[in-house]
Description:
This protein is mainly α.
Amino acid sequence: MTSPSTRQRSAGGGSAVWAVLGEARNDLLTLLAAVLAFLTGAQVTFLEFRRVAWPVLKRDVNAIVGIETEIIATTPWDVIFLQAQVALAVGLLFALETVVYRARRTPELRRWWPGDPLHAAVRAGLVLVGVALFPAGALLGYESLVPTVLDFVMGADPAWSIVRWARIASLTSFATGLAAQLAFVGTVAALRGSVCR
Length: 197
Protein backbone atom coordinates (compact mmCIF):
# COMPACT_ATOMS: atom_id res chain seq x y z
CA MET A 1 0.00 0.00 0.00
CA THR A 2 1.28 3.44 -0.83
CA SER A 3 0.48 6.63 0.98
CA PRO A 4 -1.35 9.46 -0.81
CA SER A 5 1.85 11.55 -0.95
CA THR A 6 3.71 8.64 -2.57
CA ARG A 7 0.94 8.21 -5.13
CA GLN A 8 0.95 11.95 -5.86
CA ARG A 9 4.72 11.94 -6.37
CA SER A 10 4.43 8.91 -8.67
CA ALA A 11 1.64 10.56 -10.63
CA GLY A 12 3.69 13.75 -10.84
CA GLY A 13 6.66 11.83 -12.20
CA GLY A 14 4.44 10.11 -14.76
CA SER A 15 2.88 13.39 -15.86
CA ALA A 16 6.36 14.89 -16.22
CA VAL A 17 7.37 12.04 -18.54
CA TRP A 18 4.24 12.54 -20.65
CA ALA A 19 4.85 16.30 -20.70
CA VAL A 20 8.39 15.78 -21.99
CA LEU A 21 7.19 13.35 -24.67
CA GLY A 22 4.33 15.67 -25.64
CA GLU A 23 6.73 18.59 -25.94
CA ALA A 24 8.99 16.55 -28.20
CA ARG A 25 6.07 15.41 -30.33
CA ASN A 26 4.52 18.86 -30.71
CA ASP A 27 7.69 20.89 -31.20
CA LEU A 28 9.48 20.25 -34.49
CA LEU A 29 12.64 21.97 -33.31
CA THR A 30 12.83 19.71 -30.25
CA LEU A 31 12.35 16.67 -32.44
CA LEU A 32 15.06 17.78 -34.85
CA ALA A 33 17.43 18.58 -31.97
CA ALA A 34 16.83 15.11 -30.48
CA VAL A 35 17.45 13.40 -33.84
CA LEU A 36 20.61 15.44 -34.37
CA ALA A 37 21.84 14.62 -30.84
CA PHE A 38 21.10 10.92 -31.40
CA LEU A 39 22.88 10.78 -34.77
CA THR A 40 25.87 12.76 -33.55
CA GLY A 41 26.25 10.80 -30.31
CA ALA A 42 25.80 7.42 -31.99
CA GLN A 43 28.12 8.14 -34.91
CA VAL A 44 30.91 9.67 -32.81
CA THR A 45 30.66 6.83 -30.29
CA PHE A 46 30.72 4.14 -33.00
CA LEU A 47 33.74 5.65 -34.76
CA GLU A 48 35.66 6.30 -31.55
CA PHE A 49 34.82 2.84 -30.21
CA ARG A 50 36.26 1.26 -33.37
CA ARG A 51 39.27 3.56 -33.59
CA VAL A 52 40.26 4.04 -29.94
CA ALA A 53 38.30 1.94 -27.46
CA TRP A 54 38.40 -1.45 -29.20
CA PRO A 55 42.24 -1.55 -29.54
CA VAL A 56 42.51 -0.54 -25.88
CA LEU A 57 40.06 -3.29 -24.89
CA LYS A 58 42.01 -5.89 -26.87
CA ARG A 59 45.29 -4.70 -25.34
CA ASP A 60 43.87 -4.86 -21.83
CA VAL A 61 42.38 -8.31 -22.43
CA ASN A 62 45.77 -9.59 -23.58
CA ALA A 63 47.39 -7.99 -20.54
CA ILE A 64 45.07 -9.66 -18.01
CA VAL A 65 44.99 -13.09 -19.65
CA GLY A 66 46.53 -15.56 -17.25
CA ILE A 67 47.14 -19.28 -17.40
CA GLU A 68 43.68 -19.97 -16.01
CA THR A 69 41.83 -17.60 -18.37
CA GLU A 70 41.19 -18.26 -22.04
CA ILE A 71 39.91 -15.52 -24.31
CA ILE A 72 37.72 -17.03 -27.02
CA ALA A 73 37.82 -15.56 -30.51
CA THR A 74 34.48 -14.54 -31.99
CA THR A 75 33.26 -13.53 -35.40
CA PRO A 76 33.73 -9.91 -36.54
CA TRP A 77 29.94 -9.52 -36.64
CA ASP A 78 29.76 -9.95 -32.86
CA VAL A 79 32.27 -7.15 -32.42
CA ILE A 80 30.42 -4.83 -34.83
CA PHE A 81 27.10 -5.64 -33.15
CA LEU A 82 28.56 -4.77 -29.73
CA GLN A 83 29.97 -1.49 -31.06
CA ALA A 84 26.58 -0.65 -32.58
CA GLN A 85 24.82 -1.41 -29.27
CA VAL A 86 27.12 0.90 -27.35
CA ALA A 87 26.74 3.64 -29.99
CA LEU A 88 22.92 3.36 -29.94
CA ALA A 89 22.83 3.53 -26.13
CA VAL A 90 24.93 6.71 -26.07
CA GLY A 91 22.90 8.23 -28.91
CA LEU A 92 19.63 7.53 -27.09
CA LEU A 93 21.02 9.04 -23.90
CA PHE A 94 22.01 12.25 -25.70
CA ALA A 95 18.63 12.43 -27.46
CA LEU A 96 16.79 12.01 -24.16
CA GLU A 97 18.91 14.70 -22.51
CA THR A 98 18.19 17.04 -25.42
CA VAL A 99 14.43 16.48 -25.15
CA VAL A 100 14.47 17.03 -21.38
CA TYR A 101 16.46 20.25 -21.79
CA ARG A 102 14.13 21.56 -24.51
CA ALA A 103 11.05 20.69 -22.40
CA ARG A 104 12.38 22.34 -19.24
CA ARG A 105 9.73 25.08 -19.32
CA THR A 106 6.73 22.75 -19.20
CA PRO A 107 4.76 23.13 -15.95
CA GLU A 108 5.57 19.56 -14.87
CA LEU A 109 9.33 20.10 -15.15
CA ARG A 110 9.46 23.70 -13.96
CA ARG A 111 9.47 22.61 -10.30
CA TRP A 112 12.54 20.41 -10.92
CA TRP A 113 14.24 22.88 -13.23
CA PRO A 114 14.28 26.40 -11.77
CA GLY A 115 14.00 29.48 -13.96
CA ASP A 116 16.78 30.74 -16.22
CA PRO A 117 18.66 33.50 -14.36
CA LEU A 118 21.92 32.59 -16.12
CA HIS A 119 23.09 34.10 -19.39
CA ALA A 120 22.92 32.03 -22.56
CA ALA A 121 26.72 31.74 -22.76
CA VAL A 122 26.86 30.36 -19.21
CA ARG A 123 24.09 27.87 -19.99
CA ALA A 124 25.92 26.78 -23.15
CA GLY A 125 29.10 26.31 -21.12
CA LEU A 126 27.24 24.20 -18.57
CA VAL A 127 25.76 22.05 -21.34
CA LEU A 128 29.23 21.52 -22.84
CA VAL A 129 30.65 20.57 -19.44
CA GLY A 130 27.75 18.16 -18.92
CA VAL A 131 28.37 16.53 -22.31
CA ALA A 132 32.12 16.30 -21.65
CA LEU A 133 31.51 14.68 -18.28
CA PHE A 134 30.08 11.55 -19.90
CA PRO A 135 33.31 10.40 -21.60
CA ALA A 136 35.36 11.59 -18.62
CA GLY A 137 33.22 9.55 -16.21
CA ALA A 138 33.26 6.56 -18.56
CA LEU A 139 37.07 6.70 -18.78
CA LEU A 140 37.40 7.01 -15.02
CA GLY A 141 35.07 4.07 -14.52
CA TYR A 142 37.00 2.00 -17.05
CA GLU A 143 40.31 2.72 -15.37
CA SER A 144 39.20 2.32 -11.76
CA LEU A 145 36.01 0.24 -11.57
CA VAL A 146 36.14 -2.17 -14.53
CA PRO A 147 39.14 -4.20 -13.22
CA THR A 148 37.34 -4.78 -9.91
CA VAL A 149 34.11 -5.82 -11.65
CA LEU A 150 35.97 -8.16 -13.99
CA ASP A 151 37.94 -9.75 -11.16
CA PHE A 152 34.66 -10.41 -9.38
CA VAL A 153 32.81 -11.76 -12.44
CA MET A 154 35.60 -13.68 -14.18
CA GLY A 155 36.58 -15.73 -11.14
CA ALA A 156 33.98 -18.45 -11.69
CA ASP A 157 34.38 -18.84 -15.47
CA PRO A 158 37.82 -19.61 -16.93
CA ALA A 159 36.74 -19.24 -20.59
CA TRP A 160 35.66 -15.82 -21.77
CA SER A 161 34.62 -14.28 -25.04
CA ILE A 162 36.28 -10.95 -25.78
CA VAL A 163 32.84 -9.60 -26.65
CA ARG A 164 31.49 -10.65 -23.25
CA TRP A 165 34.47 -8.99 -21.59
CA ALA A 166 33.94 -5.83 -23.65
CA ARG A 167 30.19 -5.81 -22.92
CA ILE A 168 30.79 -5.79 -19.15
CA ALA A 169 33.47 -3.11 -19.53
CA SER A 170 31.14 -1.02 -21.73
CA LEU A 171 28.16 -1.30 -19.36
CA THR A 172 30.29 -0.35 -16.36
CA SER A 173 31.82 2.59 -18.23
CA PHE A 174 28.37 3.71 -19.46
CA ALA A 175 27.01 3.62 -15.90
CA THR A 176 29.90 5.67 -14.50
CA GLY A 177 29.64 8.21 -17.34
CA LEU A 178 25.91 8.61 -16.70
CA ALA A 179 26.55 8.90 -12.94
CA ALA A 180 29.05 11.71 -13.57
CA GLN A 181 26.47 13.57 -15.66
CA LEU A 182 23.68 13.07 -13.12
CA ALA A 183 25.88 14.31 -10.27
CA PHE A 184 26.70 17.43 -12.30
CA VAL A 185 23.05 18.03 -13.20
CA GLY A 186 22.01 17.65 -9.56
CA THR A 187 24.69 20.10 -8.44
CA VAL A 188 23.77 22.67 -11.09
CA ALA A 189 20.04 22.35 -10.33
CA ALA A 190 20.72 22.83 -6.60
CA LEU A 191 22.92 25.88 -7.23
CA ARG A 192 20.42 27.40 -9.64
CA GLY A 193 17.63 26.71 -7.20
CA SER A 194 19.49 28.67 -4.52
CA VAL A 195 20.13 31.50 -7.01
CA CYS A 196 16.43 31.71 -7.90
CA ARG A 197 15.27 32.04 -4.30
